[in-house]
Amino acid sequence: MTIPDVVAAVVAVLRADAGVSIDRVYYAELPKSELASMPRKNIVVRKAGGFTADRARVRYQHQRVDVFCYGETPKEAAALELAVYDALKQMAPQNVGTCRIWDAEVSSGAIDLREQDTQWPLVFRSYVIAAAEVAVA
Question: Which of 1, 35, 98, 104 is deepest in the core (most CB within 10 A)?
């Protein structure tokens, strides 16, 4: 059995959302090709640790993800993060590839930061994504 990749599904949802309005949404890290153009608007979605309730034999998962929003300025990063917040909060249940996503629940407030090594402005927030553990057709 192959369990669908929730992070890949969230990346696809954000790339397709008109309110987010950028296609530079990446899985786990920024690609090397993007580094020379930074800082600019980019989104990175990563798996996050932490405990979520396991429903035993019920075949769905609650995957925690962190969404990092970069911008040229702290204000631009914050505006992008709010667009992501709206996209995920308003997301209707849907199939994304073989992944069935039911909803996204906010797991933390937004946190304004600077990338430790580069000092690029970023804002991140954590979500819990409810999704099927069984691939859909």
Answer: 104
| Total residue length of the chain | 137
Other Cβ atoms closer than 10 A to 74: 14
**Contact between 36 and 64 (Cβ < 8 Å):** no
Whole-model pTM: value is: 0.93
10-60 pLDDT tens trace: 999 999 999 999 999 999 999 999 999 999 999 999 999 876 666 666 778
- Report the mean per-residue pLDDT for the chain: 93
10 closest CA partner among 127, 137, 109, 122: 127
Q: Which residues touch 98 (CB under 8 Å, ≥6 apart)?
A: 2, 4, 135, 136, 137
User: What number is the average pLDDT over the span 110-118?
Assistant: 95
Q: How far apart are the first and last CA of the chain?
A: 14
Q: Taking a C-beta distance cutoff of 8 angstroms, is the pair 70, 77 a contact?
A: yes
Residue 119 has pLDDT above 70, yes or no: yes
Q: Which two tokens stand for residue 54?
A: 């396991």
Q: Given the structure tokens 């530079």, which residue do they identify?
A: 24
CA–CA gap between residue 86 and residue 91 (Å, rounded) = 8
